[in-house]
Amino acid sequence: MKPLATAIVAVMALGGCQVHENTLVRLAAHDSFVMSDELIDQFESETGYQLEILRLGDTGALTNQLILTKNAPVADAFFGIDNTFLGRAEEENIIRGEPSAIDYSDVCFNLDIGWFRENSVTPPETWRDLVKEEFWNLVVISNPNTSSPGLAFLASTHAGFDTPEGVQSYWRALQANGVKVAGSWEDAYFSDFTRYGGNYPIVLSYCSSPAAEVLDNGEAGTVALLEDAFRQTEFAGVLAGSANEDAAAALVEFLVGPSFQASLPEAMYVYPAVPGTQVPESWAAFAKPATSTIGENLDIDSHREEWLENWSEIFDN
């Protein structure tokens, strides 16, 4: 049997498939992560590793789970911790080395064009308009305690007003105007948004989301409010304490590689982080980036807990 085993290893090496003692690599990701079977096969064929994907909820839930299990990591690598939660992950020392930027998009509100047309309601122009009475009970957001878009929008309000009092006044007015708080972006978009049978025609999402809502006649089904959005960047990296750091590093390298980067626009409706990666031509019309972004200079890490506590005092009472 020994000569046969040696021959098999030699054939695998000649075929370009590397041989590893530990072939399993586990990726912890948020629920919106998409990697096609073809890309998984490509990764496994090129590296010799076997990929297992663990989806652990929205970005906040993902980050919290990785922190809670840092002494016995549930995965070797992560995808989907963004710039609103990255500081917390780094404070808890759950990342080995520097994380890599994988994709970005601008957090903003999306409107169901058909609903506004059918109900003869003039749509808002910016997120500041959402406290007006004509938008009572029309808005759904995701909880900033567990959702990265929710936290990104909370950061936007802190960047958009001069004082903490102005921020709190806006949030109180938004609550009084009937805003719904969903547990996750997925719940807000796919359960509460009118495009998917919900009751709210204004949803907190991304500037690139309208690319997924183009109608059969080629017209836009939704439109994004592109003023004063928050630029969200998602990262991948090796988890400290990984059982297979070499495999985790190979996986992160694949995620910044051309095949996976090229898949991002149509798989997850986000912009590739690697410069020069092509995006669909239709994105020029349906997935325009924000005309202005705010909040990039905020020290989210230092203020996160205070902001969330103040927000929760408004919405938990």
Could you please describe the fold and organization of this structure?
With 317 residues, the protein is an alpha/beta fold. The protein folds into 2 domains: 20-105 and 232-281, Periplasmic binding protein-like II (D-Maltodextrin-Binding Protein, domain 2); 107-230 and 288-315, D-Maltodextrin-Binding Protein, domain 2. Helices cover 38% and strands 20% of the residues. It has helices at residues 2-14, 37-47, 59-68, 86-91, 113-118, 148-160, 164-176, 185-192, 245-255, 258-268, 283-286, 300-315; strands at 24-29, 50-55, 77-82, 95-112, 139-142, 180-182, 202-206, 222-224, 230-239, 271-272. Strands 1, 2, 3, 4, 5, 6, 7, 8, 9 and 10 form a 10-stranded mixed sheet that branches. It is globular and about 65 Å long. Keywords: Signal. One of its GO terms (biological process) is thiamine transport. GO terms for molecular function: thiamine binding; thiamine pyrophosphate binding.
